[in-house]
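WP5 quarterly update. Target: Fibronectin type-III domain-containing protein. Source organism: Hucho hucho. Length: 214 aa.
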Amino acid sequence: MQSVGEKDDHNVICGLCLCLTVPDKVDIQSVALTQNNAFTIICKHLEPIKWRGKERLYNATITGSGLHKTQQNTTCSFTFVDLSYLTVYTVEIYTYNGNNKSEATTKRITTSYNDKAVIGFLVLLIILTSLALLFVLYKIYILQRKKSNNNDEQIELIQPSDEENLLNVEPIGSEVLLDAYKRKIADEGRLFLQEFQVNVRIPLPLGQSAILAT
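Structure tokens (predicted):
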């Protein structure tokens, strides 16, 4: 039966043996968006002495937006496509030497917006704006045409030929006007005298009276 000290020594030895058989973790070198919903991640290759095993495999696991996918490659280069737009994904890369796998290297990557949808929306907006502008210009043209027709109708109300149909009045001479004015003054004078004529009675002797008219 082993003592407590012997068990501790055994655990230490096993830990050292495990460390000697676990490959090193990788360092991410670059991340590039190949499309708005796709990217490629590249890490530095491990030196042969750091594998500590016969196999030399790189593994990458991507998670996010309900996706969980793993890729395995002999080179540390992974491409993920057909992802969701504007989504944060987590990529974990680790090495495997046939016996053990290394500690994972984690990287968070965010995809871009859907440029095709944005371009389509802008094209639709431009088309709708152009149609609205054409409609406004058409309305302005119709209004100007109606206004022009109204002006033409008003001009046609008086034509040069209509002036000939107007009543011709001969001029009156000044002598005729003067005679008419004199007759009018004389008539007004007679009417004035007739309206204000006064009969005066003067008493005479013997009960007679005489009437004087003024």
